[in-house]
From TrEMBL:
GO molecular function, one term: 1-acylglycerol-3-phosphate O-acyltransferase activity
Protein name as catalogued: 1-acyl-sn-glycerol-3-phosphate acyltransferase
KW Nucleus (keyword) present: no
A Pfam cross-reference name: Acyltransferase
InterPro entries recorded: Plipid/glycerol_acylTrfase
Highest taxon of source: Bacteria
Boundaries of every Phospholipid/glycerol acyltransferase domain copy: 47-166
GO cellular component terms, A-Z: plasma membrane
Residue spans crossing the bilayer: 15-33
Originating species: Cryobacterium cryoconiti
BP term (GO), one: phosphatidic acid biosynthetic process
Keywords: Acyltransferase, Membrane, Transferase, Transmembrane, Transmembrane helix
Length: 251
C-alpha cells in the first residue's frame, strides 16, 4: 500500500498517535490489507468516505486503513458512546462526530462539526447504511441520507469504498474476535461520486434519497468487483422484511 507523499495528518502529534500505538500492533499482526486503486483515496482536503458495513469491527479496520493511507479518520458515532468515561474523552479529543441513534445528522452539533472538518481540510467516515446490513448475503442494504447530506451541504466530495474479509475476523453481531491466523481484508476505493446534478437543489427527502441511491450503487459495484459475484437486483430494505433498522437482529 503506497500512502503517497501527503502524510501531514499522521505526522502531526495528536491523540491519534496514542490510538495508533494501541491499535496498530494488533491489527498489523492479525490483518493484511490488499487495496485496489489506493491512489483514488484523497491525500488532502475534506471529503466523506462512504464504506459498506457488515461487521462491528469495520470502523477499526477502516480507521486503520485511513491511517495507513495518510489520513486521520473521524467517524459519525452514536451520541450515547460519548457518555462512556474515558472513551467519550478520546472521541471528543480525536474529533469524532456524535449523531443520534439511527444515523441521523440532523441538529446543530453534527452540522457544526461537519463545518469544522471542512475548514480544517479533514475527512469523515460515514456509513450510508446507518447500521450493519440486514441483507442475508451481506450486500449493502438501503442507504440513509447522512453521507450525501454532509457532502452536499458542505460542498465536499464523497468517495465510495468497499471492503470484504472483516467477517472472517468478527462475524456479524459476534462478540468474539478471530485474530489468528492472519486474515486478508480486500479493499477497493472508487472515484468520487458526481453529485453535481444535486448541487443548488433543495435538499428535500426526494433529492437526498436520489443521491443516496447513487452512492449505494457505487459501493455495491465495488463490492461486486471484490467478491467476484453479482449483488441481488433489488436492494434489501429492512422495513419490507419486518426488521428493525437499528440494533441486533437474527439473520
Amino acid at each position: 500500500m503506497n500512502p503517497g507523499r501527503e502524510r501531514s495528518e499522521t505526522r502531526t502529534p495528536s491523540v491519534f498517535w496514542a490510538l495508533a500505538l494501541m491499535i496498530l500492533p494488533v491489527i498489523n499482526l492479525a490483518v493484511r490489507f490488499k487495496v485496489t486503486d489506493a491512489e483514488k483515496f484523497p491525500r488532502a482536503g475534506a471529503f466523506v468516505m462512504a464504506p459498506n458495513h457488515f461487521s462491528e469491527i469495520d470502523p477499526v479496520l477502516m480507521g486503520v486503513l485511513s491511517w495507513k493511507l495518510g489520513r486521520a479518520p473521524r467517524f459519525m458515532a452514536k451520541a450515547s458512546v460519548f457518555q462512556i468515561p474515558g472513551i467519550g474523552w478520546l472521541l471528543h479529543k480525536s474529533g469524532q462526530i456524535p449523531v443520534q441513534r439511527g444515523g441521523s445528522v440532523r441538529g446543530s452539533e453534527p452540522v457544526k462539526a461537519a463545518r469544522r472538518l471542512v475548514e480544517r481540510g479533514q475527512m469523515v467516515v460515514v456509513y450510508p447504511e446507518g447500521s450493519l446490513t440486514r441483507d442475508p448475503g451481506m450486500w449493502p442494504m438501503r442507504g440513509k441520507t447522512g453521507a450525501v447530506r454532509i457532502a452536499l451541504e458542505q460542498g465536499i466530495p464523497i468517495v465510495p469504498v468497499a471492503h470484504w474479509g472483516a467477517q472472517e475476523i468478527m462475524p456479524r453481531y459476534s462478540k468474539r474476535l478471530r485474530l489468528f491466523p492472519r486474515k486478508t481484508v480486500l479493499v477497493k476505493i472508487g472515484d468520487p461520486i458526481d453529485l453535481g446534478r444535486f448541487r443548488g437543489r433543495n435538499l428535500d427527502p426526494a433529492t437526498l434519497n436520489e443521491a443516496t441511491t447513487l452512492v449505494m450503487a457505487a459501493i455495491t459495484q465495488l463490492l461486486e468487483d471484490l467478491r467476484g459475484e453479482t449483488a441481488p437486483a433489488k436492494r434489501w430494505n429492512p422495513v419490507e422484511h419486518d426488521q428493525k433498522e437499528t440494533g441486533r437482529f437474527e439473520a
